[in-house]
Amino acid sequence: MEQVHKTLKDSEIGKRTKEEERRLLWLQIKQNKECYFMMLPFMLVFFIFTIVPVVMSLPMGFTDFDMVQLPKFIGLSNYTTLFLNDSIFIQSIRVTLVFALFTGPLSYVLCFLLAWLINELHPKLKTIFTLIFYAPSMANVYTVWQLIFSGDSYGYLNSVLLNLGLVTAPVQWLTDSSYVLGVVIVVQLWISLGAGFLALRAGFQNIDRSQYEAGAIEGIKNRWQELIYITIPSMGPQLMFAAVMQIVSSFTAGTVSQSLVGFPSTDYKAHTIMTHAYDYGWVRYEMGYASAICMVLFIAMLVCNKLISKLLSNFMD
Amino acid sequence: MAAVNVQEKKKEIKVPRKYQAGSIEKSKGTNKQAGKKIGGTVGIFIFLTVLGLFMALPIYLAIIMSIKPVHELFVFPPKLYVIDPTLDNFRDMFQTLSDMWVPFSRYVFNSVFVTICVTVAQCVFASMAAFVLAKCRIPGNNFMNKLIVTSLLYQSNVIYIMQYIVMARLGMINTYWALILPSVASPMCLFLMRQSMTTVPDAMIEAAKVDGANMFTICWRIVMPNQKPALMTMIIFAFQAAWNIQGGTLVYKESLKTLPTVVQQAASAGLARAGVAMAAAVFMLVPPIVIFMMAQKNVIETMAHSGIKD
């Protein structure tokens, strides 16, 4: 190990030939073969069942593919149709952006805030509260949501509002085009305390107590100072994880909307990009077009991820 | 081991008596540290309770509905409690399940078998790979890290077709492999573990290396015991994902189907069977919640550990 480092440093002075570089790389690989062996089981399965299908699906956006005949190459035509002739797609971009802007940052802050507040409590209460806040993301109880927001007076929300006299007639939460997106956002927020939230909880648990002790000596006065000077700086990795999970869940949301306000929703008001892709993929069997839609979404998510990781890394250091 | 020495050295640093680790442990982790007012803690408790009641509402309604008799399901105004609780919905669900031509126990076995295989494999594989990605500076490491995050972001509905093609080529359609293998390599678990492991100090690993431990030992004996919160969280994720595996397009033999599929079948039949649907949802929710409680208890117990970081 040491030797390799030395050769690395020495050779930085002079220029390495390609041959030397290749030999050095091979040497490094050989010396660390233990590491590669440990990575192997995961990477093997990951490669065969994730990477290969992903790579196979990448060029599908440039084809016309109906799952019956072989894909036919049609160049950029899918993409030009998407942006120039598909007004519903443009609408779905708008919906997805509104949706992501509302649910993403809000549930990210909520995840962190709740994870932190729970951390301030007694250990027994921690488990209970973590369960309460995490449970909605575990259960697929869309039927309950449908009953809560049901359009007739049997809906829980309507019945409460009618009893209080706030409305005179039941509100059509799931079909009125001015409410559907709002309802979907609320439900998504409700179930959004998922992976990111738990990871942050674990992160809080993993912070070394001695840091707080040292902080107390150095004059940390209250919870806020403790949070800002000790907790957040040592939570960097978990915050990054939560951010990525939040991007994924807020950009790819579609099932909530589909199972709650129907498919398609009234006036396409809750029609996200994912729903659009589902529409073309599994309803019309235009797989080429659907995968072009997914590709646009993927690129948007990559850009967003890049921005956020830059923002977070500035913030951490 | 040298790692132990590092630990001991840490403890030697003089800390005023009332801030010593022992004294905090004695107060059972409640916040009697500098400047933390008990009033604040009570305030937090009240705030979380109010929010928690709101959050728990859908689950509560699901449980309530699953024990409501049919004549209570659709009364006006809808009630938040049951007058005459019954287990009819559960009985109805199990009745439907046992009437299928594949015995119910077979589905239970499939689900339990697949869940155990996937959870164990996922955690073991992801932990080892995460250790390498977080702590070994080897060629290709950076690329792998980027690949994992990128694959998390990639969502496409064509991917299922491609997965089917790969599976068919390998001759694994309609086998247990089709249920297990696609879920074994979870980039999410790996990413979670890797992020958590980056906080492990290099000095600890170097010390173990000097003592002659190989990478495998370092991973399982030195790093993993300190990663209990992340490991437990990973178990929760893995179990939850594994328990909900349906096989979808990869398995269409009835005797290979898992519980989520058949329970859904038993529960679906419109609003008239809303009670049964709720019973099914509640029934499927029990194992993940049990695992969750066990794992979280472990997460919280680890908190008093200290002295391993620099």
- Content-based structural category of chain A: mainly alpha
The overall pLDDT of chain B, averaged over residues, is: 78
Distance between the termini of chain B: 17 Å
What is the CATH topology of the largest domain in chain B?
MetI-like fold
How many helical elements of chain A?
A: 16
Gyration radius over CA of chain B: 25 Å
Topology of chain B as a string of helices (H) and strands (E): HHHHHHHHHHHHHHH
Mean pLDDT across the residues of chain A is 81
Structural class of chain B, by secondary structure, is: mainly alpha
Which CATH class of chain A? Mainly Alpha
What proportion strand of chain A?
under 5%
Under the CATH scheme, the architecture of chain A is Orthogonal Bundle
Number of domains as seen in the coordinates of chain B: 2
Compute the CA-based radius of gyration of chain A.
Answer: 25 Å
| Portion of residues within helices of chain B | 55-70%
- Described by the principal axes of the CA atoms, the overall outline of chain A is flat
List the helices and strands and how they pair.
The complex is a heterodimer of chains A (about 325) and B (about 300).
Chain A: H1 2-13, H2 18-31, H3 33-57, E1 63-64, E2 72-73, H4 77-85, H5 87-119, H6 123-138, H7 142-148, H8 156-164, H9 180-190, H10 195-206, H11 209-217, H12 223-231, H13 236-251, H14 255-261, H15 273-283, H16 287-316
Antiparallel strand pairs in A: 1-2
Helix pairs in contact in A: 5-9, 5-10, 5-13, 7-14, 9-14, 10-13, 13-16, 15-16
Chain B: H1 2-12, H2 21-26, H3 38-66, H4 70-73, H5 88-98, H6 104-135, H7 141-153, H8 159-169, H9 176-184, H10 187-197, H11 202-210, H12 215-223, H13 228-243, H14 259-267, H15 274-301
Overall description:
The complex is a heterodimer of chains A (317) and B (310). Chain A has 317 residues and is an all-alpha fold. Chain A has a single domain (76-316), classed as MetI-like fold, CATH 1.10.3720. Helices cover 73% and strands 1% of the residues of chain A. Chain A has helices at residues 2-13, 18-31, 33-57, 77-85, 87-119, 123-138, 142-148, 156-164, 180-190, 195-206, 209-217, 223-231, 236-251, 255-261, 273-283, 287-316; strands at 63-64, 72-73. Chain A has a two-stranded antiparallel ribbon. In chain A, α15 (273-283) runs antiparallel to α16 (287-316). The radius of gyration of chain A is 25 Å and the shape is flat. The mean pLDDT of chain A is 81. By secondary structure, chain B is an all-alpha fold. Chain B folds into two domains: 16-66, no CATH class; 88-304, Orthogonal Bundle (MetI-like fold). Helix content of chain B is 67%, strand content 0%. Chain B contains 15 helices and no strands. Chain B is globular.
